[in-house]
Amino acid sequence: MTKRELFRAAMNGERTDRFCHLEQGFLPEAYERFRGEGAPGGGIVPDLFAPSAGDLFTCLNILKCGYIKPETYAVPPFETKTVEETDRYIIYTDGKGVTLKVSKASACTPQYLEFPIAGRADYYKHRDRFTAGRGGLRQSSAITAAVAGYSGDQDYAAPCTHMDGFFAFTREIMGVVNALYCYYDDPELMHMMLDDRVDLYIEAYTPILDAIKLDYAFIWEDMCFKNGPFISPALFREFCMPAYKRIISFLHDYGVKNIVVDSDGDVRLLLPLWLEAGVTSVLPFEVQAGMDIVEIGEAFPGLCIIGGINKYALMGGREAIDAELGRVLPAMARRGRYIASLDHWVPEYISFDSFNYYVEKVQSFRI
């Protein structure tokens, strides 16, 4: 079976003789290290939103997420401008209207300083930028190239949407604190923003789904931390659940049955709600947040699990890798509905020798 056939089989709960191996990505520093340690294709850092073969994914026979992502934020964009720059950092306002401080030393998380939406007045002022009605402007030559590159029987990537989820979107335009207060201080505004978001996704993805059959839909949320979700299950049910059901119904109408949600942290309280909404798979199941996919797999047999292999184990050499894979792979082989992956992007503190050993062990494992 090809990589994509293995992917679809795992999603559908079909039995195969080996695992599909997928990774979300490699941090830029990991590419730099791997290139210095002799990795094939290690000097090619891909645009994750454009088709590209010949990178580490292809060289190591790892399936890539084939994201097709129209512009779903501000159209027209806000003015991009530099506020301050030193040898150590740069402060600038991006096209979403967010002002952030970025270190020049590494690819660490930026410091977010200001957001375009603080409340109802700001949203009304900028609502046209963030809503449907500008469909043609949200498409681009890059979208056309992605559709063409991921069509047909190519086997290096599984083509999918890339939607920011319904918690993620409000956090991206309001910041975490304002978004959390909004659920209580202005629930009508929160419902309005989420309804607008679904309308926009339907408009933006209709021409894409008319042109290509996607393997799955990818929804990025990151709405949990080590101790659980940012919002309660009750708030999720009231605000996010209707939006999930609407967009998943739209995707089903186009034959997209596999729905993947990406959230770091401890996602256990949200898993039943995602499943109820129509989500079929979740990733990456961070081990450091207590995500034991052996236990979760038993509790949620219908869920397709992606990830859950402790990336920190790869720092410990081959013995530690063997122990971690021995913990995960046999149990997942018995269970099924599993796609092998680390529990986040590949970081720079893993050597290429260790990563390559991990890849060989995963791909040679027979079910």
Keywords:
TIM Barrel; four-stranded antiparallel beta sheet; 367 residues; alpha/beta; 2 domains; seven-stranded parallel beta sheet; single chain; 14 helices
Structure explained in plain terms:
- 42% of the residues lie in helices and 15% in strands.
- The protein is α/β, with parallel strands linked by helices and 367 residues long.
- The chain has 2 domains: 3-73 and 116-364, TIM Barrel; 79-115, no CATH class.
- A 7-stranded parallel sheet has the order 1-15-14-13-12-9-8. A 4-stranded antiparallel sheet has the order 3-4-5-6, with no helix packed on it. A two-stranded parallel sheet has the order 2-7.
- Strand 10 and strand 11 form a beta hairpin.
- Helix 12 packs parallel to helix 13.
- The longest helix is centred in the middle third of the chain and has 25 residues, at 187-211.
- The two termini are 14 Å apart.
- The mean pLDDT is 95.
Structural class: alpha/beta
Number of helices: 14
In total, the number of domains comes to 2
Low-confidence runs (pLDDT<50, min 5 residues)?
A: none
Helix content: 40-55%
The SSE string, one letter per element, is HEHHEEEEEHHHEEHHHEEEHEHEHEHEH
Shape: globular
What is the typical, i.e. mean, pLDDT?
95
Beta fraction: 15-25%
CATH architecture of the largest domain: Alpha-Beta Barrel
Radius of gyration: 20 Å
**Termini distance?**
14 Å
Assign the CATH topology of the largest domain.
TIM Barrel
Give the class-level CATH name of the largest domain. Answer: Alpha Beta
Biggest sheet architecture: 7 strands, parallel
| Overall number of strands | 15
